[in-house]
Amino acid sequence: MPTIPDLSDYTVSRPDQMEWYLSDHPWAAAERTRRRAAICAREVERAATVRGWIERTHQADAAGELVDRPDGWRDSLVGLAGSMEPVVAENHQHALAEAALSDAEWVARERRRLETHHQVASEPDYTYPTHLLGPGAGAYPPPGWTAV
Known about the structure:
This protein has 148 residues and is mainly α. The protein has helices spanning 15-21, 26-62, 73-100, 103-121. It has one domain.
C-alpha cells in the first residue's frame, strides 16, 4: 500500500464519505487518529483559555478592580464567570474522555450512530457496509478522492 496521503482536507459531508472515514481502511484510521488528537487538543486549549479568563475575573473582583464599573456590570461579569466554571469543567472532562477512547471504541460508537441516523432518517434496514470492515477495507479508497 502506498504512503498515507494527506487527507486533512478530505470532507465527510456525504454519507459515503462518512462510511469510508469510519472504515477499517488504514488511511481512514490514520486520519481519524490525527483529527481526533487535534480536536481534543483544541478543546483542552479552549477550556484552559476560558478557565484563565474566569480566574482573572475572580482575581480582579477580589482585588476590588471591578467596583468602579457601571451598575450591574460587575455582577454580570462575575456571574458570567461563575456560570461558565461548570461548563468549562464539563467540556474539559469530555475532551479528556474522548481522547482516552481507543480508535476501536470510538469507531464502534460512531458506526452505531451512523446506523441509527440512517435508520431513523429514511433507511430502516441500513447496516454499516461490510466491505468496509476488516483487512479487505484497504481495497476501497476514499470516495471522491483522487491522488495528487
